[in-house]
Structure formats: structure tokens, C-alpha cells
Amino acid sequence: MAPEEATRRLHPADSASLAILAVVTVTLAISTSRGADLGNALALHAALLASYAVISVALRRRPATLLRGILVVAVMFTLYTTLGHVAFAAMPWIADPWLEAADRALFLGPSPSLILAPLGATRWAEILSIFYAAFIPYLYLSIFLGLIGRPEGERSEFVTGFAVLYALSFLGYLFLPARGPIVELADQFPTPVQGGYFHALVLRSVEAAGGPHGAFPSLHVGASFYAALFDLRQGNTLRALIYAPLLVLIVLATLVLRYHYVVDLIAGVALALLASRITGRRAPSPLAAEVAS
Amino acid sequence: MIYRFVRAIWRAALFGFFRRIDVQGRANVPAVGPTLIVSNHANAFIDGLLFVTELERPVTLTAKSTLRKNPLLRPVMRALGVIELQRVQDAGVGGARVQNTDALAACRDVLSAGGTLVIFPEGVSHSEPSIRPFRTGAARIALDYDDERDGGEPLRVVPAGLHFEAKERFRSQAGIVFGAPLDLTAWRAEHPAAGARELTAEMEARIRAVTANYATDRDIRKVESAARLLEGANAPPPALGRETPPDLAAHAALVRRLQVGQAWLAGERAAELQSLEMRLEKFMGEMDRLGITVPELFMRLDRPSAAFFLFRELELLVVGSTVAAWGTINHIFPYSLVRILVRNVSTDRDHFASNAVFMGTPVFLLFYLLQTAAVAWLASPWWAALYAVSLPYSGAVAVLYQDRAGGARRRARTFLLFRRDPEGHQILMTEARSILADFHRLAAEYEAATR
Predict the structure, then answer these.
(1) Which of B313, B390, B400 to mutate to test the interface with A (most CBs of A within 10 A)?
(2) What interface predicted TM-score (ipTM) does this complex get?
(3) Does B451 touch chain A (CB under 8 A)?
(4) Is the CB of residue B116 less than 8 Å from the CB of residue B57?
(5) Which tens digit of pLDDT belongs to each residue from B280-337?
(6) Residue pLDDT, tens place only, B133-163
(7) Is the CATH code 3.40.190.10 the one for domain B2-199?
(8) Taking Cα atoms as reference points, which of B193, B190, B200, B80 lies closest to residue B142?
(9) Which of A34, A83, B134, B222 is 20 to 30 A from A194 via CA?
(10) Which residues of chain B are in CATH 3.40.1130.10 domains?
């Protein structure tokens, strides 16, 4: 972004964050006006929107500040914990049956969640729980390395992609509220998932966040893929390759542990690709810039 | 389909051999339409493969007809549809020279179909410090097409410069610079009397513009040292794994500027030139002895930067160690075998990489097959399938990991060296800045004298 342009325009990461905050606030306002008990949530999100609007205007002159990165991450993680719950109260529908139907259509009849159900009763449940949980350190590490010790352009690009990915994903959380197969198909699974220590850890973490919610799209998959795509685009092929098996195992874990439908994963990958593509276009690499010239 | 498959195999092979391949000016190669790429020839069959693997549009290579005698190259040449050219010096060795009539017709067919033809006008791969005198074959092919095209699309001639950091070294860098295309029809309209000789001279001038050429091998050391100092000084080294692509075209231009300055000084102030060259040689000799690159001289030595460096590198080296170890263990036998073979077979610098790639590819594929079969026999087909997938993946991680670990080790060693001996560090930095100041002063004086 040219300096004079930067003083006039909002940073794209701020635009994406403000847009999703505005959508959430307006949706909650409409739901509240129709009788939903969402007054507190509305006040919280309206306050977030107003605060962020003020901050983003103040940050217009600093397109690559580290502060923006921290704020965007904080806002998105806040929305992650709030949206999953308010969406169920704000929307008059639950999307689980549609997502399950989409999965069955993809697999020409049978439900992939039920096909994989037997794996949940084997030692794979425990092994995959480790990788499901490993998403958190991988994500935090990727965010840390995306924000710190980078040239300003790269940091700005990382933050923009992160904001776009989460903002688009939250549209799914809000308008297609779903709890995943673990709730929707609970009575159809032959046995519950039988893991050990790490599975119990995953269960406790999910419960601490208010139970399963925000199934569509899978941010476990979306955020992991985005981090890998960012590494690839920045030429850090080794990091992308090293974590590639983790990505595959996270995909498998979300299915075997019954937190996501296959369409959630497809949507997560598609959004990661979209976010990566958008930011790639905004900030071409030096070589790409040279080629374009 | 076959072309794409072969290209994918060679991409993997070149990924294994070279640490990085940078391409500059790719947009100068037209996406469609008849295109003739003319290039310098420094690394035998690798040169052609670089064009095959780095350009999205299919290319047709030309090669000397004697290459088909090589049993390893023959199937590759067939798969890639290489057009064989008979050279004057090969007449009587590989067949009658009249075969070039067919080759010329084949080239014309490729261009008439809107294809891309790659030709190396020097006629032979070599390790000389400068490009060799051009043969007129490329120009004759271009003019032949232009004469016969009969309303067909005009030909674009794209000059290309191939650059190799150290072509006889595994995991070195390579690069291609594509220069501005020449519209042959427009060029002939501007030069109505021009023939093959004039077009060849034009091609040579354009290839010289995208390559670095030197008078002697000794000149390479002198001028490259100066260029390295000018390009790398006063900026800290980029983070490992995030190096920006080198500007090869700018490097070639810098080399030419330095050579002009060197020639001017040699004529005007020979003693000063000699003194500067001696200082530069001594300085770069000391840097090489310590194993330090010029940007590393200006690396940040504060503790927070060092702590962050340690964190970032340890994350990769610790997390990646298992996969890298798996990759190393599973490739140790084919790698060792290829190394022995290549060392025994390679008699000159410009065939080392070709031998490594052409011997390595079948050897690695054979070992993959044998190892996977062994796993299928010992375990199950499912484990064998998983193992087969893990082989190229872990092999790629292993080479990248070793590059990265080497870079991290080198940076850490330099950091500790400078922390332990700040005075020595200061002396080196002062000398680097002093030599640079002399360069800039002399450049200004040259400008003033020749204005």
C-alpha cells in the first residue's frame, strides 16, 4: 500500500475484521428485535465493533504495525469463542442436517462420519487426539512467526490473509450454525470415541469452550492450510513440508473424533486457498513483481 | 501427456540437485506463438532441462546428434522430442551432414505450429569464462522460418542467460534470465540487408547482456569478489529460508560496469588498480578463510535477535528432525551409489550436474522400487503404499533440512566468532567499508573523466 493511499484507506485486514464484526452486530440486533435473548452478546459485539473502528482509523498511517496483527488475532479469537453459541440463538435453524446430507451426497449415500466410526473405538482415537490437540501449538507458533521477525510487507500479508480466512469462516459459523456429527449423529454411532489421556484432554478443551459448535467450516483445517500456504508462498518450503503430515493427520482427526463433516473440511481448505490467493495478489513476491514488470 | 510426465520427473531431479533455481524475466517469453529461445551453454544437458522444467509452455530442445550415442540420453531425447543437429566437426562421426536438412525442416515445423524451440548457438557446452563464438545455425533457423512462414505468425527470438553458482557442486544455485524478445519481422524491416551473420551478432549481443562474461578465470575471481562486496555490503543477511531471489540481470550489469571501470583504471592508474585488487583479494581471502559471506559481516549481534534466530531455527530443526532422519536413512544407499558413479564418470566441470541428474534419476527410481517391494513383502501392501509416498517426501525434506541446518550452523558460528572477537569483526567491517568507499570514489572519478 502506498503511503498516501495508506492514510486514506483502511488496511484490508481491518476492513475484513470490521466487516465481520458489523455483520455479527447487525444480525444480533435483528435477532434481538425479534425476541431472541441476545442483549448482552449484542452489546459486547457492538462495543467490539466501535472500539475496532476507532483503532483501525488510528492505524491507517501504519499499514504494517505489529499492533494490528495482535488486535486482529485477539478479535478473531474472541469471535471464535462467542460466535459458536450466539449463532444457535440468533438463527432460526441448525445446519447439521444439511451438512450431513451434503456429506451423504458427496459419498453417494453412506455417511462418511459413520463409515469412519469404527476407528473411533481403536487406538487411532488416542493417536489422532494428539494431532488434533497439536493444532493449537502449531497455530500459535505460525501466528507468532507470521507476525514477528518479518519484513513489514510479509507481516501485513499474513495478517490480511488471517483476517480474511477467519472473517469468511465466521460467516459460516453465524449463518450455518452446526455442532458436528458428534452431536447430530450421536445416537447412530455404535460406540462413543474411546481414547485415553489425550482424548480426555481434547474433550475437556472442547467442553471448556462451551461444547461442540462452529462445525462449518473447519478452522482446524482452514487455519492449518493457510499457515502452510503462507510458508510456501514466502519460500519457506521446508516448514510447509515438515508440517504437511500434521495437516493430513488433523484432517483425519477431525473426522475420526467426529467434530466435523467432510464438507466442513472442503470448505476450510477452499477458504484457506482463497485467503492465500487474495493476499498473494495484493502483495506479490519480489520475483513475481519482477516478472510482472 | 508424456512430456508432462517426463517434465515432472526432471523437475524432481533438478529440485534434488539444485538448492534453488531462480527465473527472471519469465514474462519475456511469449505465452503463445512461434518462439526461438537462444541461450549460452554452460552445463551440458542440464541447460536444456532447465528450460523444459521452468517454462510452462512445452519447449522443443535441439542437441548435437552425437548425444544419441549415450544410452542414458537416448530415451530422454526421444521422450522430449529433441531435434538433433549435425555439427561441422561431427561430420563423419555420427552421420552425413545432409541430415541438417531434415533438422531444419523439423525446426520449421515446430515454429509453424506455434511452438518454442531452444537452441544454444555456441554449439557446445563449456566451462570457459566467456561465451564462445556463435555459430550461425540459430540465425539460419530463424530466417528460414521467417522466409517460409507465408502469412504465419512472426517469430520472437528470446535471449536467455544461464547462471550457475558452482555447477560442479551438489545443492548449488542456478538461474535463468530471459531478455527482451526480438520481433524478427520488425528487426528485418529495420535491417533489410541483414543475413544470418548479422542476426547471429544481434543474438550474441543480447545474450551477453543477460550473462556475466570474463576475460580470464583469474578475472572471474577479481570481478566477482568486487561484485559480491558491492551487492552484499551494509545490509544484514536475510532470514534463512526467506532469501529474496538474486537479481541475476543486475549482477550481470554490475559485472560489466566493474569490467569497464577496471579497464579504465588499468589504462589511467595501473598502480591504484593493483593496490585495490590486492586489498580486495586479501579481504575476500580472509572472509573465505573464516567461512563468512559479505552480508554475514553485517549481521545483527544483539541478544534479542540471536534469541529469535535460535527459536525460529530450533523449531524447524527439532520438529523436522524425524522426517529428515527418515529421508536420510532411506536415501543413503542410492545417494552414495550415485556419488561414486558421478565421481568416476565426470571428467570435466560441465558434465558433473548432467551425470548426477541422468544417473541419479534411474538409480533413485530403482531403489524406490526395490525398497517398496521389500516393505510390501515384509509388511503389507498398505504399508508399502504409505512407505512409497514417504520416500520422495522425506527425501525432499532431508535435502532442504540439510541446507537449512548448514545455513543455521554457519550463521551461529559467525555470530559466536564475532561475539568472541569484536575487534576482529570491527577490523573486517572497517576494511569492507573502506574498499567500498574507494569503489564509489573511483566510480565518481570515472564518471567525471568520461563525461
Answers:
(1) B400
(2) 0.85
(3) no
(4) yes
(5) 999 999 999 999 999 999 999 999 999 999 999 999 999 999 999 999 999 999 999 9
(6) 999 999 999 999 999 888 889 999 999 999 9
(7) no
(8) B200
(9) A83
(10) 2-199
